[in-house]
Amino acid sequence: MKKIIIVLILLINVVVLVSLTYAQSPNPQSGSIGLEGTIPSEPPKVGATISIPSGGQSFSQNPITVSGICPNGLLVKIFKNEVFAGSTTCQNGSYSIQIDLFSGQNELVARVYDALSQPGPDSNKVTVTYDDGSRDDGLSQLIITTNYATRGANPNETLTWPIAISGGKAPYAISVDWGDGTVDLISREFAGEFEISHVYKEPGTYNVIIKITDANGKTAYLQLVAVANGPVDTTTTKQYEDKDLTTQTKIILWPMYLLIPLIPTAFYLGKRHELHSLKNRFK
Question: 195, 211 in Cβ contact below 8 A?
Answer without folding.
Answer: no
